[in-house]
Design a protein that fits this description.
By secondary structure, the protein is of the alpha/beta class. It has eight helices and 15 strands. Strand 14 and strand 15 form a beta hairpin.
Amino acid sequence: MDDGLPPALNQALNQAETNTLTREFLEQLYHHHQTVDRYPPSAQVCDFAERLLHALFPEQTNECIGSLACLEAEFAQLEASLVRVLSPLSGKLVDAPQTVAAAFMRCVPNIYHHLLQDAQAMLAGDPAATSLYEVIRAYPGFYATAMYRMAHVLWQQQVPLLPRLITEHAHSKTGIDIHPGARIGSHFCIDHGTGIVIGETTVVGSHVKLYQGVTLGALSVSKDLAGSKRHPTLEDDVVIYAGATILGGNTVIGTGSMIGGSVWLTHSVPAGSRVYYEAGSHMREAVV
């Protein structure tokens, strides 16, 4: 601003204008602070999930619990910790935090069973894997799948936001983005994994193997279709190679199919299909 006023007065007017804007902004921000939803810190939520993972798989930390009594105490503490995590959400839960936490803990044996099957599938599916210990300790695919399976149980219990915090934590550590609402069957194998995206309404059968860069996504839809089936279905024994993109809620990849690297699919293929690019960038589909 320069209206021919003395420099000192011009500076004073500029400062007053800045102060006025700052005051309005602070008042607006203060109102937001008073009305924003209250959720537990993300670190507290993710710490619970990682502590449970370490209790189930000491391979993760090499810290083994020394007695059955101590193991029982650890799981009691984990349940109490989950109650504390859920308590700020009391008005948003379908049941009391204690009820939700108890129901989650009853699912822990099933989570463990599924994760053992996943680890075994990764060991069997990767020639570079030398042991189950290596898969559990070192493989990002196992870690991301473990966080997903915990988050999925909370998602099924209609716990808001917290499942997303858990899977996004895994996403930040591994580059593997699995929405907690996705439904994934047993013996799920992720090889390498970086860049995998699995959308909310994806359905994955048993003994499915995904390589890095695979996207199981949605075609562009309007916001009012957010609750519809927007992501594909993979039936049992499907293999999807690196960089393939499969889109759409009506897209079904039939049992035993193989989708080659960098393939783009927005339509269903029958059981036993082989879909891949030939020289010249022509996509070829065959059923065997």
